[in-house]
Amino acid sequence: FIQTVWEREMSEKAIYQHGSTMGPWRLLRRAGLAILAGVLLLIIGGMVFQRIGEMRAASLYPAPGQLYDLGDVSLHMVCRGAGDQTVVFSSGMGNPASSWRPLERLLEPDFRVCSYDRDGLGWSEDSGGARDAGLASDRLARLLDAASITGPVILVGHSYGGVVARVFAKDYPARVGALILLDSSHEDMGERFPPLAQQGFRDLLEGFQLAPWLNVFGVPRAFDLFAPAIDGLEGADYEQSLALLNSISHMRGTAEEARGWERTAVAGREVAQAGLGHLPLDVFVAGDWPDEMLPSWTEMQTELSQLSSNGQYYLVAEANHPQIGMSDKYIPLVVAAVRRRAVELVPDQAQ
Q1: How far apart are alpha carbons 283 and 315 in whole angstroms?
Q2: Residues 334, 156: contact at Cβ < 8 Å?
Q3: Which of 17, 35, 15 is nearest to 27 (CA)?
């Protein structure tokens, strides 16, 4: 009997000790499951939020132009105005055609203005292939053919679109009457920026490649992460452009352009080596860069203005990188340059 009582007491003590030992583990397991469930709910909620946002954007912002079949891909372009001379806009990395609207409106009364989305961007289809400035230049030539734009155009390129525009001007010189660059990317900026900025540039390219995945879960849409890319736009122009930046497909196309930067830089160096002859060229430079970056940036931009013997350099002191092509405060300077170059081209076209 004594032995039985002792064994029972020891058994109950073991159960008590075992329970007290396992209690914290049970709590931790339950807490872990709760956290996991919360994370899964956030992921699913983000994906639903993104899907609803994209459906709403597709309804609110249908393509303003049309798709042109180029064989390997169909690209979207919209042309407005009815002037005798055509101005074509080449957007920066990540920027849709809609980001040109403030500048287009000022030119529409006197020019035919055309903006387009490169492979995978905006309203264009995605080829599924590689992207770089050389490929973009060839596709632009085919796009102009498909849209029956045959005469020399005034080509305006912003940021990455400036590299595409330079390559196009070299590859198809008869198709460009004048070239206007707005704070254009430079093929050597990844090597010639100060060391900290070089790392920042590499981080930017990697960030673009991460962006489509962030968009899958609605993160940029929830926190307006891409709003700085369209600083200067307002109202409907801002809302439409931000909706495209927040789309998965648009940022997937942007990621492919970022992935092909090294090939784009090679194409840019080929332009630097060949030069642009006497092509009318205006280079507008944003002055609102960090102090440690501005000297190397202005040096590289000066080099771009010297690609042509007919090049001009303009420093827009207070403008930042996106504002120089999007803000109503600065784009009148670009409009004046377009009008001046257009007047210069009239005698040449008459011949």
Answers
A1: 8
A2: yes
A3: 35
pLDDT in tens, the chain (351 residues): 333 333 444 444 444 444 444 567 777 777 777 777 776 777 777 677 778 988 998 899 999 999 999 999 999 999 999 889 999 999 999 899 999 999 999 999 999 999 999 999 999 999 999 999 999 999 999 999 999 999 899 999 999 999 999 999 999 999 999 999 999 999 999 999 999 999 999 999 999 999 999 988 888 888 999 999 999 999 999 999 999 999 999 999 999 999 999 999 999 999 999 999 999 999 999 999 999 999 999 999 999 999 999 999 999 999 999 999 999 999 999 999 999 999 998 865 433
Residue found by looking up tokens 């001046």 in the block: 340
Query: How far is residue 28's CA from residue 5's CA, in Å, rounded to a whole number?
Result: 35
| Amino acid (1-letter code) at residue 216 | V
DSSP for residue 92: P
Element (H, E) at 278: none
Q: Which of 280, 250, 259 is nearest to 343 (CA)?
A: 280
User: Which residues are within 8 A (CB) of 265 and not within 5 positions of it... i.e. 6 or more apart?
Assistant: 187, 188, 190
Amino acid (one-letter) located at 235: G
66-69 and 74-80 strand pairing = antiparallel
Look up residue 276 and give its two tokens: 């642009």
Q: Hey, is 9 helix, strand or coil?
A: helix
Sign of the torsion formed by the C-alpha atoms of 300, 301, 304 and 310: negative
What does the pLDDT look like over 90-137, one tens digit per residue? 999 989 999 999 999 999 999 999 999 999 999 999 999 999 999 999
End-to-end CA distance of the chain: 123
- Residue 177 region, left (φ>0) first, then alpha (ψ -120 to 50), else beta? alpha
Q: What is the pLDDT at residue 43?
A: 75
For the record, the structure tokens of 159 come out as: 């940021």
Residue 339: closest CA among 85, 158, 82, 152: 85
